[in-house]
Amino acid sequence: MTDPTSDALVHDPEGGLPRLLEIMARLRDRETGCPWDLVQSFATIAPYTIEEAYEVADAIERQAWGELQGELGDLLLQVVYHAQIGAEAGHFDFHSVTKGVADKMVARHPHVFGDESRDKSADQQTVDWERIKAAERAAKAETGVLDGVAPGLPALLRALKLQKRAARVGFDWPSTTEVLDKIVEEARELVEARDSLTQEEVAEEMGDLLFVMANLARHLDVDPEAALRAANAKFIRRFASIEAALAQTGRRPEDSTLEEMDALWNAAKAAEKAAKAKAR
Fold first, then answer.
1. In this structure, what DSSP letter does residue 62 have?
2. Model confidence at 2: pLDDT above 70
3. What confidence tens digit (pLDDT) does each residue in 225-241 have?
4. What is the pTM of this model?
5. What would the mean pLDDT of 85-112 be, rounded to a whole number?
6. Which burial class, exposed, middle or buried, applies to 55 when counting CB atoms under 10 A from its CB (0-12, 13-18, 19+)?
7. Phi-psi region of 29 (alpha: psi -120 to 50; beta: other; left: phi over 0)
8. Element (H, E) at 243
9. Above 60 in pLDDT, residue 1?
10. How far lies 116's CA from each of 106, 110, 123, 238, 257, in Å?
């Protein structure tokens, strides 16, 4: 039988976070819960967590503020979901999750919540933040410079974090010139691998080139994930222009030629540049 108090909370539109926690507990109830939710685990939910985080980033990238609220709600649901599974397994619960992150924020901001001076630049605060994080890693016996960089991160983002860690101890090129030289070298090795090596070796050389490209982004102070998302969006936009132009003649891309589509692509590119120039 459903607890009347629980049922009232679930249907209370002003129930806030307690309502969401109760909804998740009900979904995972062994007797009355949802069959799909009951068979989920940390591992099966993790891909949805990553997907929702990217959808938040996408809404921000597009400045789709009307969508952002919903995407943030979806991401919060992922935290609640993992916390519920953790509570059922006796590992942690939502309270301990929030307590842990709150304690961490207080500890990492002694200039706000402690006795340290707030008279410091954002750059100095970044240095202090990394110093505190290094002490936290040491307390976890993570003594290596690269320890603690999560393997589950998207590969491009993880490459960036690994390179930042190494740069802090002086393992870094002094300028973009050396990075660009390395890109040329890696591109040459990739071409050589394509012509004479196995597919596995080609993949290795491709990885080396991508890794150096991430390093170039870091040296240029560019977020490579955001840059690639923007490039993806641009590709979609321009290809849609090709499709629209062909549709006016009753055709589809497969009915066209590469030369024609390339010309339509260049026309879309020129139109975008003209629109940007006019907006300035």
1. T
2. no
3. 889 888 998 999 999 99
4. 0.63
5. 94
6. middle
7. beta
8. helix 224-247
9. no
10. 12, 6, 16, 52, 66
